[in-house]
Fold this sequence. Notes:
By secondary structure, the chain is of the alpha/beta class. It has one domain (3-149, 169-197, 248-255): Rossmann fold, CATH 3.40.50.150. It has helices spanning 3-22, 24-27, 29-38, 56-64, 75-88, 125-135, 153-166, 176-185, 202-209, 213-224; strands at residues 46-50, 67-72, 93-97, 110-116, 136-148, 189-192, 195-201, 237-239, 242-255. Strands 1, 2, 3, 4, 5, 6, 7, 8 and 9 form a nine-stranded mixed β-sheet that branches.
Amino acid sequence: MTGSHIDRIREQFTRQAEAYARMRQATDERGLGLLVALAGTTGADRVLDVACGPGFLTMAFAVRAAEAVGVDATEAFLGLAREEAARRGLGNVRFESGDAERLPHADASFDLVACRAAFHHFPRPERVLAEMARVAKPGGRLLVADLLADEDPAKAAYQDRIERLCDPTHVRALPASAFERLFDASGLELLRGPRGTIDYDVEEWISHGGPAPDAAREIVALFEASLEVDRSGLRVRRDGGRLRFSHHTAAFVLRVPEP
């Protein structure tokens, strides 16, 4: 990634590492286990988790695989991940510093390469996908799991506005059709791509980004403006007096072509 963007990512997630690592969606063992199973992980697999954050998915892979490696650009995340892996007594996992556009690994090094909840942070997702494919073995698998934007461009732009106010490192949430075009252009075979939703309390979600008070108020106002007329595609509603919304998600499993 460009120096300025990766610096912003390091600044944002160094500041918010602890808050992010406490989010239920980051630590959800059931959801992580479903991703590990969806990817067809076996005890013989060597797995790379790209933009691993605090490493919870990496550690879920380590339980099932021969070895799991997490790579991230933010040292604060890597420190938290190493501490948690040591606490769990996982001897087949390690965490390394690196840029998703220039992975510090040789070609064809891994049976499975995963990336969760990060593609919306990448200015050039096609480069990250190419790097993931490069370090995967021919015939190996990729797992790309992320939030989805609405196919309506106006709703997608409204969501991106909210996301950037909360976290300025957000670049763009891709709709499913954009992911599919990306995979086709990369010559990857889509094996499966189940969809889902993740539900959030707005106040709790805002805390993971730590925006300034003025930005937080603007976020709430934008959500409230999407209550009666769905401007965002995020199914905004009030539940028990709390403002809530849902991210639409997908988990794509892809096969790397063989020569």
